[in-house]
From TrEMBL:
Gene3D superfamilies named among the record's database cross-references: 3.30.70.2700, FAD/NAD(P)-binding domain
Cited InterPro entries: FAD-binding_protein (IPR028348), FAD-dep_OxRdtase_2_FAD-bd (IPR003953), FAD-depend_C (IPR049516), FAD/NAD-bd_sf (IPR036188), MnmG_N (IPR040131)
UniProt keyword list: FAD, Flavoprotein, Oxidoreductase
Domain MnmG N-terminal: 213-250
Name of protein: FAD-binding protein
PANTHER family: FAD/NAD(P)-BINDING OXIDOREDUCTASE, FAD_NAD(P)-BINDING OXIDOREDUCTASE FAMILY PROTEIN
Occurrences of domain FAD-dependent oxidoreductase 2 FAD-binding (ranges): 86-120
Lineage, opening ranks: Bacteria, Pseudomonadati, Bacteroidota, Flavobacteriia, Flavobacteriales
Cofactor: FAD
Pfam families (UniProt xref): FAD-depend_C, FAD_binding_2, GIDA
Domain FAD-dependent protein C-terminal: 270-466
Length: 521
């Protein structure tokens, strides 16, 4: 039997197999010469003390003990070409993992994706970055892999179901992700590696008899006696199926509008909104690691901060060490920011959404839109920001200290946001209560993280797509819409997930419930 160990070591020791084996030998009172293999099971950084440590948990196998390297393999995916069809609307994490699960269960998924395949999206991303042209069907949010593909593949989730999480991580590894994601406390794939993984998932679905249709937008639902019968496509074609998993993501406003128009129940949902703050990564390293230079064994430092300001939560969201701010509008006439990091997180800047929780009462000026009030609130801020910044894909920007002091910044340094910035007093972008909370909140952040509140930091507005502004209600047990039988609202867009892992888990859950309803599970 292998011996278990759990201790703290220096980053240098954690990065070296030989040094780690020596440390394990000391901890377990074993000669390093007796050690066959050290297997690390979990790894996390502890920067609470002046000297950063790495928490390491694992097993040590001695010479003579049987050690079989673990190998993650994909499940058996049968050929489902001639099996019952299930429509999956959206090829983001929820839709793709729902499709894989359907195949495991012997059902044929037909994925309908309004955007382009993962490689083809690149031309449209270049157009929005360089020319300020927004393709409503192919952008950072829409297209194969969804918003996650060209974000950075953060795989952290607050879900407590470890088994579900490990299954999703293992599937990612099976499709080509580094096995380190099974070990790291905050796993991350990188936007440079995700496209190939997503493509491999698609090719597996097709090889097993599933269908994946790109540039195929759903414009209507065929419903009879409150039961799903199929969907209508933009070209007028109808695809029939009485089981539809709706996994369109948090930015598919046309789907929310369609549901509302057809009197299919949806609800306004609170979300969070604010700015994306960018600092020099070197400054964040200095703050978090309490050192002038982090060295070669420490990764670019992340940060997480939460404050209560005037009864509202203000917090960091989707923090990207060594990352880039991206233009994530999905329609002309609006600007939206988000962030991503490459796998090495080797850019010179760090960025994070800094957002304030909203309440349903904040949407009262838009109450005439009913359950779409939050969406219209969100849209109004994005459109105002677009207008103030010059009606291109430039975004309003302000140095952080200037923002807290209501001062227009005399100049904005070049940031990672490629389309560019316009110096705007952020109070013009947001409602007064939101600007007031953020001004006070940044001052509070600066008290907790000495050096964070600086004019070296630039705020970009808005960070507005943190989660869906709508919830599509579903039965707690069957996961079907409370009104329409055979419709399975799924993932972030329906209000049941908040990231790649939780969306993938929800996709699998919906697929399982589809099979259960067909007495296949």
């Amino acid at each position: 039997m292998p011996k278990e160990f759990q201790f703290q070591v220096s980053p240098q020791v954690a990065a070296s197999e030989d040094l780690l084996a020596q440390q394990v030998g000391k901890f377990c009172n074993i000669s390093p010469k007796e050690i066959q293999k050290v297997v690390v099971l979990k790894r996390s950084f502890d920067a609470r003390q002046k000297a950063v440590k790495v928490n390491v948990k694992g097993n040590v196998f001695l010479l003579g003990e049987e050690y079989i390297p673990s190998k993650i393999e994909l499940p058996h995916y049968p050929n489902v070409a001639n099996q019952q069809e299930v429509i999956v609307v959206g090829a983001g994490p929820a839709g793709l993992f729902a499709a894989l699960q359907l195949i495991e269960l012997g059902l044929k998924p037909i994925i309908l994706e309004r955007g382009k395949e993962v490689r083809g999206r690149r031309r449209d991303l270049k157009a929005i970055n360089v020319d300020g042209i927004v393709n409503e069907d192919s952008n950072y949010c829409f297209g194969e892999g969804g918003a996650g593909t060209y974000s950075d593949g953060k795989l952290y989730t607050r879900s407590k179901k470890r088994g579900d999480i490990d299954r999703i991580l293992e599937l990612f590894v099976g499709f080509g992700a580094t096995p380190d994601i099974m070990v790291d406390a905050h796993p991350h794939i990188g936007t440079n590696k995700l496209p190939q993984i997503i493509q491999d998932i698609r090719e597996k679905i097709i090889a097993c008899g599933g269908e994946v249709l790109f540039e195929t937008r759903v414009t209507d639902f065929v419903v009879k006696n409150n039961e799903m019968q199929g969907v209508v496509l933009q070209n007028g074609n109808i695809i029939s199926a009485n089981k539809v998993i709706l996994a369109t993501g948090h930015s598919a406003r046309d789907i929310f509008e369609l549901l509302h128009k057809k009197n299919i129940l949806i609800e306004a949902k609170p979300f969070a909104l604010g700015v994306r703050a960018e600092h020099p990564q070197e400054l964040i390293d200095k703050i978090q690691y309490s050192c002038d230079y982090r060295g070669e064994f420490l990764p670019p430092a992340p940060y997480s901060v939460v404050k209560q300001v005037n009864g509202r939560g203000m917090y960091s969201f989707c923090m990207c060490p060594g990352g880039i701010i991206a233009p994530c509008a999905t329609s002309p006439g609006e600007v939206v920011t988000n962030g991503w990091s490459p796998s090495k997180r080797d850019q010179s800047t760090a960025n994070s959404g800094i957002v304030v929780e909203l309440k349903l009462e904040d949407f009262k000026p838009f109450q005439k839109f009913g359950p779409l009030a939050g969406m219209e609130f969100q849209k109004a801020i994005e459109q105002k920001a677009w207008h103030l910044a010059g009606e291109t894909q430039k975004v309003p920007a302000q140095r952080m200290v200037d923002f807290t002091q209501n001062k227009i910044s005399q100049n904005i340094p070049k940031t990672s946001y490629v389309p560019g910035t316009a110096s705007i007093e952020m109070g013009e972008v947001f409602p007064g209560f939101l600007s007031q909370i953020m001004r006070q909140g940044f001052v509070e952040f600066g008290k907790s993280m000495k050096g964070y509140m600086t004019n070296e930091a630039v705020l970009h507005a808005p960070e507005s797509r943190t989660s869906s502004p709508v919830r599509i209600p579903r039965d707690h047990y069957s996961l079907q819409h409370v009104q329409i039988k055979g419709l399975y609202p799924c993932g972030e867009g329906a209000g049941y997930a908040g990231g790649i892992i939780s969306a993938a888990i929800d996709g699998e859950k919906c697929a399982l419930k589809v099979a259960e309803s067909l007495n296949l599970k």
